[in-house]
Amino acid sequence: MEYKCCSHILGSIDLSFSGFKYCNEVWEGPEYISYKEDNAFQKNEDRRLKLIEEMKNGIIPERCRQCPMLELKEWKEFDGSIYKITVFNWKHCNAACFYCSVHSDFNEQVKKSDDYDALPVIKQLIEQGRLNSDSFVAFMGGEPTMLEEFPSILELLLEKNCRLEVLSNGIKYEKLISDMLNAPKNNSLCVSLDCGTKETYKKIKRADKFNEVVNTLKQYVYDTKENSHKIKLKYIVLPNVNDNKYEIDNFFNIAKEIGITTVSRAVNHLESKMNTKNEAIETSVIKAYEYFARQAKNYNIRLMEEPWADAIIENKVYNCRKISPLTRLKANLHFFFGKN
Ligand SMILES: C[S@@+](CC[C@H](N)C(=O)[O-])C[C@H]1O[C@@H](n2cnc3c(N)ncnc32)[C@H](O)[C@@H]1O
Ligand code: SF4
Predict the structure, then answer these.
(1) Does the beta carbon of 169 sit less than 6 angstroms from any atom of ligand 1?
(2) How many domains does the chain have?
(3) I want to staple 206 with a disulfide (CB 3.0 to 4.6 A). Which of 54, 148, 217, 338 is the partner?
């Protein structure tokens, strides 16, 4: 049937910190259902089904009207299959990058969060036969390797042959990540290094763990051999922090030394993917962004495109929500008075 709907409503789940919902595209909603709420899982599914019916009748919630995912097209009838899950533990992390909106709890221990409870939801989806080899699961937001249930979740999803992507800071090595990369599937690992020196690492991540990350990466490359191209090393170009040749050259030297064959660059998207263009982007960032691509070529390392970041650079503005002076102040305090 042709109607306005989106692929999230028709098969995604956002397992976020404070609860979960069927969509992770719009910050405004739908509301999260707490993991602790009675029948939380069923409530989320009921509202998904109700919304699909409403959309078939042309009723579009206010929050969805601006969403780029909303599309008028011939949608396949929803059969319960889940095509995308984001595991978003949100605040649990062993670093505290000054650019990150996670508000890290800066905890170096692997732990079970009081509020976060993704594992039962994933188990339920598996029991209901709703995950398969077409399902894509991304681990992000907070540090996945610091979540106690991360290995159990990963094992279950590997068994179901889902396609997996892990975004990690690489401070903690996790053997199952190597297994995931060695699985016969296009799984991937993205490690955000963001710099080429220990000093800058400490400034950005507020954790003195540059050497640990290098060692973890070496181990993943060693474990995965011909699959090591599935590891991507990422660099967010940050004004007055790492937007210089020295840092970028060091990044490529270390990448080469480790045996990394894929890199990507990004810019600070600050708060949101959507909304108004308001912040002029610094010239030094634009230059460093271009220099990064040239160096990737010189070092014969594949540069993975980040179209959203390219678009920001091309427009020379941050395509993001306006940051309030308070948020900016908090970020600055965070940067100057960090633990390390
Ligand atoms: C929030 S992190 C969580 C995963 C992991 N802890 C890490 O550092 O890669 C998920 C991704 O968002 C990116 N990220 C976080 N804050 C960002 C920002 N302000 N601008 C652009 N990318 C950002 C990180 O580089 C990372 O690739
Ligand atoms: S390591 Fe990842 S989750 Fe942790 S603060 Fe940095 S970007 Fe955020």
Answers:
(1) yes
(2) 2
(3) 338
Q: Which residues contact 320 (CB under 8 A, 6 or more apart)?
A: 269, 270, 271, 272, 273, 275, 276, 277, 278, 279
Report the run of H or E that residue 166 belongs to, with start and end. Answer: strand 163-168
> pTM to 2 decimals?
0.89
Note whether 316 and 270 are same-domain residues: yes
Q: Quote the pLDDT of residue 338.
A: 40
Give the residue, out of 87, 140, 143, 150, with the most ligand 2 atoms within 8 A of its beta carbon, to mutate for a pocket test: 143
Q: Which domain holds residue 213?
A: 193-340
Q: How far is the CA of 43 from the centre of ligand 2 (A)?
A: 31
Q: Is the distance from the beta carbon of residue 142 to the nearest atom of ligand 2 less than 6 Å?
A: yes
| 150 and 248 housed in the same domain | no
Strands 277-280 and 317-319, how do they pair? antiparallel
Q: What is the pLDDT of residue 340?
A: 33
Q: How far apart are CA 340 and CA 337, in angstroms?
A: 8
pLDDT of residue 29: 65
Verify that 126 and 219 share a domain, yes or no: no
Tokens of 63: 């929050």
Q: Looking at the structure, do residues 176 and 197 belong to the same domain, yes or no?
A: no
pLDDT at 284 (0 to 100): 83
Q: Indicate whether 229 and 130 sit together in one domain.
A: no
Q: What is the C-alpha to C-alpha distance for residues 286 and 239, in angstroms, rounded to an integer?
A: 10
Tokens representing 334 are 């965070």
**10-residue stretch averages of pLDDT, the chain, 340 residues long:** 93 88 72 89 93 95 82 94 90 90 86 84 94 94 93 96 98 98 96 97 96 98 97 94 94 98 90 48 85 98 90 66 50 44
CA atoms within 13 A on the CB side of 46: 6
